[in-house]
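user: can you give me the structure for this one chain? tokens are fine.
assistant: on it. calling the predictor now.
[tool input]
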Amino acid sequence: MDKSVLRKLLEKLQQGELTVAEALARLRHFPFENLEFARVDHHRTLRQGTPEVIYAPGKTDRQIIQISKSISGVGARVLITRLDKKRVTVLKKSLARLQYFPEARMGILLPGRKKTPEISFKTPVLICTAGTSDIPVAEEAAVTAWAMGCPVEKIYDVGVAGIHRLLAHKAKLTRAGIIIAVAGMEGALPSVIGGLAECPVIAVPTSVGYGASFGGLTALLSMLNTCASGVTVVNIDNGFGAAMAAIRIIRLKEGS
């Protein structure tokens, strides 16, 4: 349950617009709702500031629909990650307002009838990719951050094979509040950015590359061994995780 939703509920109770029984009815699934196949954590937004997120692979369409309705039913935004485009048509029959972002492979369902999220943070998330092939992972990070209320900026295809492309954006890098650097191959981009920027840098290795990239393992190990101090590394292809880490940092920074 979103903090603002809970606050409004308590205010209505205090002002006599709701009875105790009505308030209890709305809170009946707090802190979690048992759907038998899933226990939906409605307390997570209050506890961590972000709602539970649905990972689509391994779940049936029916399960995704029921979990989505459970989350949206308490006024929280719904994020569905790694969602195959082929499943969207079926899901939209029950979740009519579901927005799909094919490059990010994400579905978003915002509270009420909103089509765009309320931007609640001031610090923008700057997302950089080494190559064009890294964009799907970067877009997963971008859509996640945007859906959670962060302003997002992007600089794509600025890898070290043509480092002048990155240096052309040096001013933007040095004034950034937080940077997510996405790279495959040898994974060098986060090290370079980590040596230029003052802000926190979150590195995302991707599975992009030829045989010896080992599905992103080479980039992961390279990033873990970066000589740029303070760079944080998430799992291979985990744009979602990078964005969620960025949101936590921003929330602490802004005291929200």
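assistant: here you go. The longest strand covers residues 178-183. Residues 3-109 form one domain.
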